[in-house]
Amino acid sequence: MIGLASLVGPLVNKFVDRIPNGNERARAKEELEKGLVDAANQVMLAQTKINEAEARHKSIFVAGWRPFIGWVCGVGICWSMVAQPVAQWAMIAWGDGTELPTIDTSYLMELVTAMLGMSGLRTFEKMRGVARRQ
């Protein structure tokens, strides 16, 4: 929604600024902004319905791909941030010079950030009062 408003906002302002009456101009701008928010909410509602249908699916390949990605990211971060450094320290402390494998976390962190960012955006919408009441 934030991206859509920044793209459509200047165009909307050009049309709204042509309204001579200040009160009517403010009301028209408010209605257009409300329309943009409603359209964005409809898109999110449609995606939520798709997500629910996927989650109810009998096949693990349809219903389980999102949790799988979450668990893979969680295990990967746990290994690279906690388990691998501690295990490497233990191997050095006990005299075994074996190098443990490391994970290139650049792609992993991008994925986790995107997944968490979406929930952060939803929280921001709720705080701004844009979110739908259920």
Tally the beta strands: 0
Low-confidence stretches: none
Give the DSSP E fraction (strand runs of 2 or more residues).
under 5%
Please, how many domains? Answer: 2
Mean pLDDT: 77
What profile does the largest beta sheet have?
A: none
* SS content category: mainly alpha
Q: What does the model show?
A:
With 134 residues, the protein is mainly α. It has 2 domains: 1-58, no CATH class; 64-134, no CATH class. 80% of the residues lie in helices and 0% in strands. The protein has 5 helices and no strands. The longest helix is centred in the N-terminal third of the chain and has 35 residues, at 22-56. The two termini are 20 Å apart. The model has no long low-confidence stretch (mean pLDDT 77).
How are the SSEs placed, and which strands pair?
Elements: H1 2-16, H2 22-56, H3 60-63, H4 65-93, H5 105-128
